[in-house]
Amino acid sequence: MTDDIKLELRGVRKSFDGVVAVKGLDLALRKGEFLSLLGPSGCGKSTTLSMIAGFLAPDSGEILVDGRVVNKMAPRKRRIGLVFQDYAVFSRLTVRANLAFGLESQGMPRKERHRAVAEISEKLALCDILGARGGDLNMSEMQRVALARVLVTKPELLLLDEPMSNLDASLRASLRSELKQIQKDLEQTVLYVTHDQVEALSMSDRIAVMRDGAVLQAGTPEDIYHRPVDRFVAQFIGDPPINIVPCRVEDAQGKLVVNTALHSGLGLAGRDVPVGDYLLAVRPHHFRASHEPREGTAESEIRLVENFGAEHVLHVTYGDELVAVVTEPGFAQEGERLHLSLDIEQAHLIHPLDERIMARRSREAAA
Amino acid sequence: MNENPLWVTILKRTAVVVSMIIAFFPIYWLIATSFKPYDQWASWPPVWLTDAPTLQNYRIVFFPEAAREFATAQQGSLDYKVSGSAWKAFQDSAIISTFATFFSVMFGTLAAYSIVRFRTGGENYPFQFLTVRMMPPIAVVVPIVALFSILRLSDTYFGLVLAYTAFTLPFSIWMIRSFIEEVPLELEGAAMVHGMSQFRAFLTITLPLIKGGVLATALFIFILNWSEFLFALVLTAGNVITVTLQVANYVSASSGKLYGVQAAMGTISTLPVILFGYVIQRHLVRGLTFGAIKR
Amino acid sequence: MIKLSVESLCKSFGDLHALRDLGFDVEDGEFFCVVGPTNAGKSTLLKTIAGLHRPDGGRILLSGRDVTRLEPRHRNVSLLFQNIALFPTLSGRDNIAFPLRTAGVAETEIARRVNEVAEMLKVSHVLDRLPQTFSGGEQQRVAIGRAIARPADLLMLDEPLTNLDARIRIALRIEFKNLHRHIGQTQIYVTHDQVEAMSMSDRIAVLNNGRFEQIGTPDDVYHRPVSAFVARFIGQPPMNIIDAELSGGTDGATLKGPGFSIPVDGIGGLESASRLPRKLAFGLRPEALRIAPGEGPDTPFAGEVVWIERLGSKSILDLRFAHGIIKAVVPTDHAVRREGPAWLGFTPRAEHLIDKESELFFR
Fold first, then answer.
1. How many domains does chain A have?
2. Is C85–B190 a contact, with Cβ atoms under 8 angstroms apart?
3. Which of B195, B205, B294 is facing C84, going by the closest CB pair?
4. pLDDT 10s digits, B139-195
5. Would the pLDDT of B290 be above 60?
């Protein structure tokens, strides 16, 4: 079991001038796993990465690679590959020279070097551009060269620090699947640091959501998206963001029901929570909009329409707040009124004080 | 990651100490000599720290009576050209250096701005400016002396100010140019879009940002002017006298150089520069655009 | 009413032609978006309109007057720079007050206006601090505050949301739209992100290589792109473009490609196939594909799912079909959710037929 753990962090802490950046972090990465550290700026994800790479020493706790503590090991001895934001491909060197660069400085003999470069360029489809100069590459090639240059040294662990944040939006989408496929083909263990939930959702085997130096939740993208543990995780994942409105859970003749500013008597079958005030979190596509009133609908006004081409997001009044509702294009215009229902099965109840998510329906209970 | 062996550390520290001694020795010797009595100025073995400190050298610099007394004490054989006190030399140097520095930096800033923002003169223009300083001053002295006497600028304040300004301008332009280049065009652009002319935007936005650089340049130019000797020597004839000339004047045909008096004058003449440096040091802060620009 | 009119504007830097013969009008109160890849000429366009670059040719008319040769300060425009460009030596308050001061507004009025703007942008707490102490979002908002403090004829925003955290970006997107509604100012918004362009604008101009590919409403550029560039740039994932050949006579002709064949009279909105060349292509939005685990009347063509990218509520499928990879978007709970064989169907529309030669759509 422990054999296939590639990287492990045990109670890792780090503070700068008394300000705690990372507080007691526990995390394990399996061999061949793609794990994303996801969080806003200043959540401690980059500090964590720096400690794993060896640029920073933790104040306490242990970092283990292949079961060995590497806290005191120099960065270059850890066999960790790093790719940063700006890729740093040498623009005056050919792709071949770029790839051989790391090996040369390791002192690998010429013959082996050639073999290693040939091998990696085949895997990453770089054979045709080996003679091109770094400065002449397009962004997709640049990313592959940057990855290949690190992968050719056969790192135990690949660390990626927001590698796509300087790129055009359209480019990012295509590089995402490219990177994921390379990782999958090579069974490379990857730790990926990002603030972009789309990157985390689309590429990771597991995501660890960080805030204020601690991991709030670690799980599969499905877990994180469908079963967030608290308000922060729920709000951080998903675009448009999840809607949060106040609600009250009441006992209606032995049945628990939820009442909100617009909807009342929403059944809470299978969930057992104390009666009281809560927050209700509903994803924008778990609202249903219709032009005609139906059972369970309430009337509301459209304040703002965001046109995304394939779908429209309507921002509609909900009590004193606005909620986002996803509809097909051309469904309704600004200023119109519509009738709204919500799928309570898919909604989360948030405790108003500690902001934990209450009474998640477990799979077993649903089945 | 500091894994140097002990002997490397020792070697490094020794190198630092040795270079500090080399750097500070002249300053120490200057100050020490300025307090030595006549017989210890050039005695052998050298006197490191005098046992009879005296202010006589300083008195000679400032009071003609003290100079006469000294001459009498030396059997009246001193025929140095000190006609009056050194006050005039300090005064003249201060006037010339200050004005020359002011003009050099002012014209330098305007020229540098024009070169950076309007690409005045094309790519190589700043470099062409610097080539002016590539020939040694002695090479251009003769034509300049001729030119100055034709224009009747010899031995005038204006003449020296003009010469100093012309000869330090390339440095001003070259240094200030690099500071202006660091100020993003968008900052001035924002000021212009929001209602300012380009010149006003330069004065109110760019200038405060490069203030430290401009002052550092001014200090550098001031030091050049203050310690200039060659032009002062050939372009004056007694009407105007600078500190460097006055120091050289403390020479006697019978007794050779008056080292103690020269040292006293030299010590005093460092004070204005140190004072200037001290006054502007809090402005010498770099990286002022921090927080203004998204990276 | 036309607020801004740009006529055959040209600008080059040395050999680089940044703007090539651009012409467009912006209506009073419109939110006009210029979208394009990096180096398309977007920032140059804004700076030229603001008067910070002198155009090589063309005219700029603002509120009916020719401002082409005017200094920036006489144009009555406002510009939010891509790199923010807050005055580093001025406090947040003085930064926002800057345009008001230069316009000679009375100090009491300035104080009132700065507070009003700061409150709207939620930056009241940083007014007395220097920009270097601001967070990224605060810098952005104060810069916006400076840009809107004095009502200008035209407000230009250059990539105001890039470099911000993804979360803040989403929140600010809506704020910007609300802001525009609130102040009702004519705005030109520049971005490389088609999502921002689509969701915020009244009209979009797609800029590529110094030229406009298309100017139109979000629905126009999304549903009726004029060129393959626009089709690929707008929409994420981009529009699939599938090569096909026209075979048979004008009657009963079919659109054929590897693995599929569609009768031409099944193409929605097509009046006549007579003017179509034999070799063409058609565009297909990823959400317009029909996918099913089995063959059916709606899904007659065989394909294979080779890759699934899950994005929470929806998934993007990469399908091997017609000698290439095409992309489809389906809800996460769709019947096809594993790699393997799948069946697909589609109905091309007349406005999505592309001339292979020119890469332009037929009109």
1. 2
2. yes
3. B294
4. 888 899 999 999 999 999 999 999 999 999 999 999 999 899 989 899 999 999 999
5. no
The domain spanning residue A33 has which CATH number? Answer: 3.40.50.300
Question: A-C interface: how many C-beta pairs under 8 angstroms?
Answer: 98
d(CA A175, CA A36): 16
- Average of pLDDT values for A207-234? 95
> So what's the architecture of C240-355 in CATH?
Beta Barrel (2.40)
Same domain, A227 and A304: no
Asked if the C-beta of A211 comes within 8 angstroms of chain C's C-beta atoms, the answer is no
- For residue C146, the chain B residues in CB contact (below 8 A) are 190, 194
- pLDDT tens profile B14-35: 999 999 999 999 999 999 999 9
Q: Stretch A133-148: mean pLDDT, rounded?
A: 86
How far is residue A350's CA from residue A360's CA, in Å, rounded to a whole number? Answer: 10
Output DSSP code: residue C226. Answer: S
Q: Which residues span the domain enclosing A57? A: 2-235
* Same domain? A253 vs A225: no
CA distance A323 to A300: 10
Q: How far apart are CA A267 and CA A284, in angstroms?
A: 20
Question: H or E element: which one contains A298?
Answer: strand A298-307
Could you tell me if B37 and B125 lie in one domain? no
Q: In the beta sheet, which residues pair with residue B69?
A: none
Partners of C87 on chain B (C-beta within 8 Å) are 187, 190-191, 205, 292
Please give the Cα distance from A113 to B287 (Å, whole number): 44
Interface check C47 vs B, CB under 8 A: yes
Domain interval for residue B96? 87-283
Give the per-residue pLDDT at B293.
Answer: 57
Among A40, A225, A329, the residue with its CB nearest the CB of C167 is A40
Q: Which of residues 80-119 of C touch A (CB under 8 A)?
A: none
Q: Residue C108 is encoded by which pair of tokens?
A: 């009491």
What local confidence, expressed as pLDDT, does residue B292 receive? 54
Tell me: the pLDDT tens digits for A2-58?
568 999 999 999 999 888 999 999 999 999 999 999 998 889 998 999 999 998 999
* C265: amino acid identity, one letter: D
Q: Which two tokens stand for residue C186?
A: 């004519």
CA distance B104 to chain C (A): 26
ipTM of this complex = 0.86
Whether residues A166 and A302 share a domain: the answer is: no
Which residues sit opposite C343 in a β-bridge?
A: C292, C302
Burial class (CB in 10 A: 0-12, 13-18, 19+), A128: exposed
